[in-house]
Amino acid sequence: MAGDKGEPVEIDDLAQMRALVHPARWTVLMALYDGEPLTATQAGALTGLTPSAMSYHLKQLAKMGLIERAPKSDDGRERPWIARGSGLRMSAQPDEFVGGVMMRHLMSALTKVIGAPPPKDPAERPWPAGYSQTRMRLSKERRKEMLARLQEIVDEYDKDEDADAPEVDFFLIHGVRVDAVPEAAADADVEASDEDHARRTA
Length: 202
Known about the structure:
Blueprint: E1 9-11, H1 14-20, H2 23-33, H3 40-47, H4 51-63, E2 67-69, E3 81-83, E4 88-90, H5 96-114, H6 140-158, H7 183-201
Parallel strand pairs: 1-4
Antiparallel strand pairs: 2-3
Helix pairs in contact: 2-4, 3-4
Protein name: Helix-turn-helix domain-containing protein
Organism: Microbacterium kribbense
InterPro entries: ArsR-like_HTH, HTH_MarR-typ, WH-like_DNA-bd_sf, WH_DNA-bd_sf
């Protein structure tokens, strides 16, 4: 979350997603969307890059419309970079490489939430989070409808936070089961592949 900067930024282009898989860009982007303004020097210290190298990456993120410069101040100091929205929403279909990197980023973020041991004092910090898994059969259209409704609820609560409450991370993950492909379709794919192989080797 990035303060009260309005709506989430939509990432609906594969080229955008490819540009985000760079480790330094992803690390800085997550820090900025956590509400932490960063100069190129601070971002470089966070990622291990030089300020000049980090400046290049920050400008590329700005070109994609993901971040922007903070308003000018009267002290003449370097203007830090800030997030452009309240969060990131990815709707593009990734290819195999981008999808694999994104999953590693996701698992890293999940581990930070669920990998912490229980606190000695439960009143100090709830542990670790609720967990729910539901499996159902839905068409592509109905999946999109359900996700849109869930996102409306998330956005509603995100815009009306409890200022004194602890921060809570929510992960909304969905996907079609790999082993859920109908057997008839799988058999047809195998037969087509065998026929094609026979033609190419005849």
